[in-house]
């Protein structure tokens, strides 16, 4: 009986060691091309423009089956958009006013990765959800030679007075959505892939005023390029 117990323990320990040997860690970074899409307070489609942001962080691949991995990590990601003056959208083609919104998030991806061998490396195909927490940001208005900056504050509910606060712009602290990416990993561990994200949560706060019609829905969306290295 003791021999059988010791055998089971030994097999379990070997399995854990084998699994740990296959877990890989890496670093990743690259540019994002981000936008905020949705509709304004009158139910009209937002007409915002792309900004260039970036993402950077660490990741880990945990094997779950042959060629399949659970991929997670922790990233800093800069998101936002252009031309959303006080959340009343303006087109850069019809106005000299330009507004740039940038919000920094700490992001946790939860992806399923398919990583089969191809040539001397591996194909990378992945998808899954992400969750993110806003930690900082700013909104800058530019008109001719005039420039004015607002700091981002995070709240799920704001008053009508806060909406018109000239010192701050308000966004919800949490975001979540879907990831998808495709790329290639070289034999040496260097990899690159194209990625896209679609935010599924409303990121603008609710206005706590019964006299205000608030049909606005803002969501993050974007795509980018990732370059990284698996150790």
Distance between the termini: 42 Å
Could you report the average pLDDT, rounded to the nearest whole number?
85
Compute the number of strand runs. 13
Spell out the helices and strands N to C. HEEEEEEEEHEEEEE
What is the number of helical segments per DSSP (H or I, 4+ residues)?
Answer: 2
Radius of gyration: 22 Å
Structure write-up:
The protein is mostly beta strands and 231 residues long. The chain has a single domain (24-230), classed as Porin, CATH 2.40.160.20. The chain has 2 helices and 13 strands, in the order αββββββββαβββββ. The strands form 2 sheets. The chain has an 8-stranded antiparallel β-barrel. A hairpin with a 4-residue loop joins β10 (174-185) and β11 (190-199). The two termini are 42 Å apart. Residues 4-20 and 88-94 have low confidence and may be disordered.
Layout of strands and helices, then pairs:
Layout: H1 2-22, E1 24-39, E2 51-65, E3 68-82, E4 97-114, E5 117-118, E6 121-143, E7 146-154, E8 157-158, H2 160-163, E9 168-171, E10 174-185, E11 190-199, E12 206-207, E13 217-230
Parallel strand pairs: 7-9, 8-12
Antiparallel strand pairs: 1-2, 1-13, 2-3, 3-4, 4-6, 5-6, 6-7, 6-10, 10-11, 11-13
């Amino acid at each position: 009986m003791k021999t059988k117990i010791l055998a089971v323990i030994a097999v379990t320990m070997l399995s854990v060691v084998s699994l740990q040997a296959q877990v890989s860690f890496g670093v990743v970074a690259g540019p994002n091309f981000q936008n905020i899409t949705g509709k304004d307070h009158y139910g009209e489609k937002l007409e915002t423009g792309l900004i260039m942001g970036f993402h950077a962080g660490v990741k880990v691949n945990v094997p779950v089956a042959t060629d399949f991995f659970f991929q997670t990590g922790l990233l800093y990601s800069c998101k936002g958009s252009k031309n959303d003056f006080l959340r009343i959208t303006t087109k850069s083609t019809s106005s000299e006013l330009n507004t740039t919104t940038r919000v920094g998030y700490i992001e946790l991806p939860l992806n399923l990765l398919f990583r089969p061998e191809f040539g001397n490396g591996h194909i990378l195909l992945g998808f899954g959800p992400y969750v993110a927490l806003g930690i900082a940001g700013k909104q800058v208005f530019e008109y001719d030679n005039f420039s004015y900056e607002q700091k981002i504050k995070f709240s799920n509910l704001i008053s009508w007075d806060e909406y018109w606060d000239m010192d701050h712009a308000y966004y919800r602290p949490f975001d979540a959505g879907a990831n998808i990416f495709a790329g290639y990993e070289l034999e040496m561990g260097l990899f690159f892939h194209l990625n896209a994200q679609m935010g599924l949560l409303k990121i603008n706060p609710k206005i706590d005023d019964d006299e205000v019609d608030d049909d606005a829905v803002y969501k993050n969306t974007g795509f980018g390029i990732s370059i990284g290295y698996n150790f």
